[in-house]
Amino acid sequence: MIKNVVFDMGNVILRWDPQYIAEKLSNNEKEKEIIINELFASKQWALLDEGKISLEETVASFSSKHRELLKYALYHWHDYFEPFIEIIPLLKRLNNNNYQIYLLSNCNKQFDEYCQRVEAFKYFDGFYISAKHLLVKPDIKIYQDFLNEFHLKAEESVFIDDVKANIDGAKQAGIAGYCYDGDVCKLEKYLIDEMKLDF
Q1: Residue 161 is inside which H or E element, if any?
Q2: Residue 90 neighbours by CB under 8 Å, 6+ apart
Q3: Using one digit for the tens of pLDDT, what is the confidence trace for 156-169?
Q4: Helix (H) and strand (E) counts in the chain
Q5: CA 51/CA 83 separation, integer angstroms
Q6: What is the pTM of this model?
Q7: Are 53 and 44 in contact (CB under 8 A)?
């Protein structure tokens, strides 16, 4: 019996679109390219998610030519990390029917700076942020550590993510998984028909 519904964050709860965020951060086409290529697509960005580098170390790693632009982007990108409001009714129903709701996300420690303003998160019972545990999806260890962190059983949990590799990682840890494509109705049908949730 499923008791725990675990969600990824980017492109499930919040819109993760580097191009869109870069456009919000700058009106200059060249600057947008720099933000995307030298921040969001950089090794440093991955290291931030892994918890292996600090924000200050990230800034120091930027080229002097673009440091101020990239520093601004680094500290303000999440101002444009916008919610998918259509998922909120589903979260509310799960919460009202006593299912435990968790977040399992590859993201950096800046999560603490924006989580309070995300309405969806008020329905969550726990948050597992990769950078705080030095583990990232789809490594099987992150799913095992997540289960241990919240004292959950794999067979009582289902994981929703938009990346198939992350779903495959969860399944290796014994957790059922659903690859989300943005269609809340399909997700709801899966939870009810396949996972036998009652909400």
Answers
A1: strand 157-161
A2: 184, 187, 188
A3: 999 999 999 999 99
A4: 11, 5
A5: 24
A6: 0.95
A7: yes
